[in-house]
Amino acid sequence: MATHIRKPDRRDALERPYARDHESSVLDAMSKGIMPKAMPALVAWLMSVAADECPSRLHKSGVWDGHEGGFVVRNGEAIRNPVTDGGGSRLGSPAIAAEFRRYLEQGPSVTDAEGYYLTPLRACISRLRKNRPTIAEHVHSLVLREGNWRELAKELRLPQDVADVYLAEDLRWCWREFAQREVRLS
What we know:
Shape: globular
Order of helices and strands: HHHEEEEHHHHH
Distance between the termini: 66 Å
């Protein structure tokens, strides 16, 4: 029985030898500050920025006792966190790593001593929430769905072609906001 090659398979076979070169070209353009044009490239940019911000280690060895890292910083002063203070795990929950705890507890616009955002994408989404709340929600939802814009389109009950246009434009808004104040607080 003869195997029928579908058009997507032929397209994939044609693009596969050049995929690495194309990906490196897109990454070079993004590092130079050139906005990606296609939806997959915009989503790849968003997911790479989101991955850079989130700590890779969520837990540390041991059982959560509620006392480690039980501080919140407010107005530059460390105070005990009433939510985690004095607690502990009766179920044996793993202890949260210090980097991840800071990521969870700090606000989106926290800067270091030189005025650089610690989490520039979270700061960007926070700024978008003030003027463009729908765009901010779509971008945040894409991050939570690991860049699966087709799943988000289904949830929004939008036809795929319409969702592609809207979500791509949302990512362009995010790119512009991120690029304007990516690193330093102005």
